[in-house]
Structures are given as C-alpha cells and as structure tokens.
Write a structure and sequence with these properties.
The chain is α/β, with parallel strands linked by helices and about 160 residues long. It contains three helices and seven strands. Strand 6 and strand 7 form a beta hairpin. InterPro entries: GreA/GreB_C_sf, Tscrpt_elong_fac_GreA/B_C, Tscrpt_elong_fac_GreA/B_fam.
Length: about 160
Amino acid sequence: MSVAFRREGDDEHMEPKFELPIPAGPNWVTVRGLRLTREKVAALEAVDLSGMTEEDAKKHSRVLRYWRTRLATAELRPVAAGDVVAFGCRVTYRLNGRDKTVGLVGDDEADPADGRISFSAPLARAMMDAAVGELVDFAGKPDAVEIVAIAIVSED
C-alpha cells in the first residue's frame, strides 16, 4: 500500500498547540497591575485539575504558564511625577473636539472599556512625555491630540 493512503492517526492532523503569546517589550506594571497578576496566578494555581478533561487541563496549564511568566517578568514602575504624560498617569486629552480620559497601564491590566490603555498602544506612545497644553501628532495627523490634564493615579 502506498504511504499516501496510510493513516497514522488523528493526532498527526491536528493543529499544534502553542503557548499564549507574550507581548513584546518590557512588562511594566502598576501597583494595581502587580496585585491583579498575583491574584490571577493564585486563582489558577488553586484550580483542581482532577475533574478536567486532558485537553482542558492542558489549556489551563498553558494559561497558568503565561501568568507565571508575566508575574516573574513584572517590572513595578515608580509613581510618575505628573508633570508630563508617563506610565501610571491618568491623562485627559482632546481628540477630534472631544475630551477623553485614560490611564496608562501595563499590557495585562489594559481595559479600554474601563478607561485603561496599555502604555504600548499607539495613542499612549504618541502622548508619552507631553505636557499639559501640548499638541502631539497621532495617526499621521500633526497636532491631532491636545493634552488637557495629567493626574497621578495611586490605585492599590
């Protein structure tokens, strides 16, 4: 029989399972972000795997490895001075005539719906190091974003 018609098994045709992707760059965290990461690791470590299927247990282990890696590589950043836009600040900015406020946080802590964006997001990178009243370029448009206010955030 030709090798082309021989079936070794279903497993050889399944897509490989890869680790969860780690965001590129440093793993900066706020005090709140570090606490949330520790809580996530503790919650995942407390899960009883004995009642799970083998596939579900493997998925759980992948997620746990991701969060353990994030905890091990976390870099707690000092509180910003508040004179310019920096990691950990809450920034009010004007874009297209509308004022919005966001906090600049770590990748894993980011939640745009809750007003938290990653420091590595394009908008955050555009605003970084700008002072109140300064206009910054964004999305290919010069002077698209005006920095309205900067506040220090202490979320424990």
